[in-house]
Amino acid sequence: MRNPDPYEDRRDAGRALAEKLAPYASAHPVVVGLPRGGVVVAAEVARALKADLDVIIAGKLRAPYNPELAIGAITEDGRVYLNELAIRGLHIKPDYIEKEKKARLGAITERLSLYRKVRKKVTLKNKTVIIADDGLATGATMISAIQAASAEGASRIIVAVPGGPEDSVERIRAMKEVYDVVCPVVPPLFFAVSQLYADFRQVEDEEVLGILKEFSDAQKK
């Protein structure tokens, strides 16, 4: 009999995070999810805190011959975070990075236009912002999202993830832009975000659009 997973699914993880984030409800935060899986988590937090919900799209810059390995990330406004250690270790050339940045920015722009049809951008200026994802791995996309929220003028940034490796959590905790990190599960041996869940099925754009529409419609009432 295997050890139980910390979370049943992303909704369960979001509810667990919401309990720990309850003290921030009085600040009327904006909860920002990182598509796609992070939006499911963020929605549960936003419902519990009665907060606004939005997205920041940060696309992973993929290593050559290993698309699962992040060498950095780029946000919808073109801000780039690069993992210089990984880039040096893999001897990645600048021209590859430029091509990857353009490719990922194109994909981000296409997805963002889809999302903005149902949910207009929520301002982050002078707001307490909770950035949620379904887990950390290298932390590259989260770091990029933090930088984007900070550039938009967020007054406080709280990072909320169900779990992740200790080195990534501590790297993010050390960022000057970050006020707090909520990460309930830090496995002694971390190999993938999927290990946090019993059900880690892929989240499709249709589900994200449904969540964004729910919050958009609620705002109109």
Question: Explain this structure to me?
Answer:
- The protein is an alpha/beta fold and 221 residues long.
- The chain has a domain at 10-57 and 121-220: Rossmann fold.
- The protein is 41% helix and 18% strand.
- The chain contains 7 helices and 8 strands, in the order αβαββββααβαβαβα.
- The protein has a 5-stranded parallel sheet, sandwiched between helices. A 3-stranded antiparallel sheet has the order 3-4-5.
- Helix 1 packs across helix 2.
- The protein starts with 9 loop residues before the first helix and ends with a helix.
- The mean pLDDT is 92.
Order of helices and strands: HEHEEEEHHEHEHEH
Mean pLDDT: 92
Distance between the termini: 49 Å
Beta-strand percentage range: 15-25%
Overall body shape:
globular
Number of strands: 8
* Count of individual helical segments: 7
CATH class of the domain at 10-57 and 121-220: Alpha Beta
